[in-house]
Structure formats: structure tokens, C-alpha cells
Fold this protein.
Amino acid sequence: MRHSTIASVETRTSWVVASVVLVVMAIAFGAPWITVVALKNIAAEVNGERSVPAFASALMWIGSGFGGIMMGRVAERLGIRFTVILGSAMIATGLALSSLGPSWPLYIGHGLFIGLIGIGGINAPFYVYVSRWFDRRRGSALALISSGAYLAGTVWPPVFARAIAYAGWRDTMLYYAVFELVLIVPTAAIVFRPPPDMPHHATLKISARAGATVLGWRPNLVFTLQMCAIFTCCIPMSMPQAHLVAFCSDLGISPAHGAAMVSVLLGAAFFSRQLWGVISDRIGGLYTMLAGSACQAVGMAAFLLTQDEAGLFTVAALFGFGFSGLVPANVLASREMFPGSEAYWRMPTLLLCSGCGMAAGGWLAGLLYDYFGYYAPAFATGLGVNVLNFVIVGTLAFRRRQSVMA
């Protein structure tokens, strides 16, 4: 499917850069996990309302999405090194502010500092940055770096559970603020130099040219459907991630085991995402999205039917495998269908929709729990949204097949 007479931009340095980006992402995305693990502790300070810490997490996702668009433009002008160093400093500031307690310090710390300027300056700019180091195995590279959030979810929840039990959630935030600042700033200063960007490098034959259609439709219509697809895939994706520790606690499972379950879920997502990356390099982003949507729906349904600890560990691993390929496959599909010169705004826009979906899913699950008193209605709602996602992605994949056969 791919063709090029131009020498590849990929070198050993490309994979070194991608690996360092993965580590930085894992550290940056560790910050919001403190609030997830401490959800019940924080809620206890506001009359048990879980929607309060859930809303703080939602603001982080929304902020990171909008920040990605803004900071993507900044990275185009000033370079990735500047936005990553600034983002790291803002994450530390946001954690310090959030430690002052619910509700408003938590909302401002997560939404403005951790999300908008912090992760917003790191996450979306990294997708554009790394995509310019690769042309042959771009899908695998994007899958690798996007696994940073899952690596964070694998490593940090058990650590945070013990730290919170020992020192409380406020001190845990302060300690982590210092930790991430000390590691990310010198790494960014040393490693992240300008990429060997070649905007003319080939992608897929269906890539848009000036005035051309995409999949037989207007480019902006296709991109709108892409935004809807990534938004609807992330609503069910976020529900178990944001509420699994609390859900386990409601079933009499210890918070430590609940945190371990989150690690299993995201550990499975981390390793399977590398597999999805290889698959996407072979079959393309749209077909990978379709397969991932079907797998996520199966995992979501399994959460509705399982309540014992051993079963939930199994379901967590299954769910992690299912959803892990969706976001990088969507980003890859954008690079396949649209010119590389538009990546600096299309990629962050998709990640904004992803962040909004993650925010909506986590917050909606909290609201539904507060209303019903248990999580089944939230998970059922997530399953329904997942079915809608499958229909949207299926429509795009069908159009892709028709355009290839034409």
C-alpha cells in the first residue's frame, strides 16, 4: 500500500527518540493518576461526592486536549524542547495547587496547569514530533509513544496507593511534583532536537491533495467523522480506568488490589498496543480502529457481568487489550488520509476530541454512580456509546474499501 522512491528518514536515532518520549510520557501522565487512586479519599472530604474528583480528572483531559492545539502551534514555532520543559513545570505547579484540596484548587490545578499547559504541552506535540522521525513504521512508533499513558497507569497506581496510605494524597502530589520536574526537564534539554522532517514523504495513496476528496467525500466531513469516532471510543474507554479502584472497593476488594487491577488493565494495554501498532502498519489505521472498537465492546460488556475479584482481573486484561489500539490508529489514519503539512493541527484536534471523550466518560460514570448508587448503569451507557462508535468507524472503513476498489 505504501510507495516511495525517497530514502527513508528512519534511523536508529528515530527509535531512541521514540523510546525517550515514551518514558517522558509515562512520567507526565503519572500526575493525574494520584487523583484516580485517591478518588474515595478526596470524595470523603466533600460529603462522599465522587463526581468532584472525577470532574477534576475530566478537566485535566479537556484541558490537555485544548492545550494540545495551542501548544502544537507553539511547538511549530519554538520547538518541542520548549513546550516539554514548560509543560513539566506546569504539571508540578498544578500538583502543588491541587494539594490545597477540593474543590476549586483541585479543579484549577488539574484543568489549567496539569491539563491545558502541562500535558497539553507534552502529549499532542509529541505525536507530531515523533511522526516526523518515521515514514515506514509510523504506526508502530505512534503506538509506542501513545503507550506512555498506559505505562503510567501500570507503574504508578500501586506506588500511589502505598504512598497515599502512608503520607496522604496531598503529600503524594507534592513529592511527585518534584520527581517529575527533576527527571523531565534535563531529559528534554538533552535529547529533543529538531526532527528530520520531510513533509513530501509518501503516506497512503488516498492522502488528500489540494482540492481532492477523501474517501469520496469532502475532507472536512471525513475529519468530522474521525473526531466523532475518537470521542465516542474514549467515553467507554475511560469509565473503568477512572472508577475501577472505587468499583472494587464497593465490592469489598481492597484498594491495593483495585490499584493492582488498574495496573493489569493498563499493562495489558501497553503490551497489546505494540501489537496493534504492527497490525496498523499492515492494514492501515481505519481497519485497526474497527477491530479495536469491537474488542472494546466485548470488554465493556464483560464488566457488566463480572463482580468477583479473579474474574475482574481477567476482564481488566481483556479490556486493556481491546481498547489499546484505538487512539494511535485514529491518529495514524489522519496521517494516511491528509497531507503531512496539516498534521500540526489535525493531530492535536483529534487528541482534543480524545481528551473530551475521556473526560466525559469519567465524569459521566461519577454522576451516574452518585444518582443510582452503583456502577452498572454507567457501564451500560458506556457499552451503548461503544456500539455507536463501531457504526461510525464501520462507515469510514466501508468508504475506504470502496475508494480502494474504485
Q: What stands out?
A: The two ends are 15 Å apart (CA to CA). The CA atoms of residues 257 and 365 lie 21 Å apart.
